[in-house]
Amino acid sequence: MKKIVAVICGLVVCLSMASAKKKSSGKFVLGLDDSFPPLGFRDKNNEIVGYDIDLAREVASRLGLELVCQPIDWSTKEMELNTGKIDCIWNGLTLTEERKRAMACSEPYLANAQVVVVRNNGEIKSLSDLKGKKIGVQAGSSAQEAIDGAPDFKKSLKEIVEFKENVTALNDLEFGNLDGVVMDLVVAGYSITQGKKPLVILDETLAPEEYGIAFSRKNKSLRDKVQKTLLEMQADGTVAKISTKWFGSDISTIGK
């Protein structure tokens, strides 16, 4: 009996140590779509970089944590968060009332809008010109939600093709397989400029929006720590420096 008790006690100690080790792992696991420039993407060396990554790395450093960038399937991002595989979703996540109810979201840190990208041949100049046309959209994205939120526009389209990421959709548009791509303004502008693509963004927007960071509702304390750190970074000029690096000016909305 004493041996059995000793074994049980040993197991309890081991489990406790494992649990403590997990809690003190010192890692901040960020879930992202790693093909979403300029917020989070892979550079020529296959390293994950971007505006959101720079912000998160500085936040993690100030909190004494190691940033771990974990690529995920964007269409299952909420599940990845709720199962504890990631600590947050930080990669151009549009704040919606539904997401605010389902997750513990930060305050907005960047303004954005859902827009339509078309070829620059001048054939399509407005949303109405897309009647009977085929457009692409990233599955599970706020762009898809923006289309659903504009029923007249959606009904006018011939076909909506879903893609895993925007990069492939833009390539198909450039090759003539699509007539337009609905996506985030911030990402569209960067992709067109950096890739020198023969594409333009229509002036009409489908929906204005704001980006935020999502955490599990069970982990509001981490959300609050990150939010507090971002405000400190905004106050000391760190956010402005990072924003200028990626966008040429400070376009952050933190604390504004």
Automatic annotation (TrEMBL):
Keywords: Signal. Coiled coil: none annotated. InterPro entries: SBP_3_CS, Solute-binding_3/MltF_N. GO terms for cellular component: cell envelope. It comes from the Bacteria. Residues 1-20 form the signal peptide. Its main location: other. It is found in: Cell envelope. Residues 27-250 form the Solute-binding protein family 3/N-terminal domain. Belongs to the bacterial solute-binding protein 3 family. This is ABC-type transporter, periplasmic subunit family 3. The lineage of its organism: Bacteria, Pseudomonadati, Spirochaetota, Spirochaetia, Spirochaetales.
